[in-house]
Amino acid sequence: MVYVLGARKGQTMVVKVWAKGKNAVFQIRHKKTKKYLPGTEPGKDARTWTGALPYSGNYEVIVGGTRGNASYNISFTIM
Q1: 33-59 pLDDT, tens per residue?
Q2: Of 26, 29, 59, 78, which residue is the least packed, with the fewest Cβ within 10 Å?
Q3: Domains observed in the chain
Q4: What is the DSSP secondary-structure string of the chain?
């Protein structure tokens, strides 16, 4: 599943994902530059991330399962 969030450079983003089997993870990348945010690159298995955004524009939060399909809850905060 891909979620698209708009934000401005310098804003703080918080993303958290919860899954009963702890098998849901995500990546975050800037839609235009395709650059991943540090710690959310493929293979990093991010379940929580907080940081200042390096670019203005849309960010894609890409959620997937580490072992098959994952039933999960996710929260986003941009401030």
Answers
A1: 999 999 999 999 999 999 999 999 999
A2: 78
A3: 2-78 (2.60.120.380)
A4: -EEEEEE-TT-EEEEEEEETTS-EEEEEEETTT-PBPTT-STTS-BSEEEEE-SSSEEEEEEEEESSS---EEEEEEE-
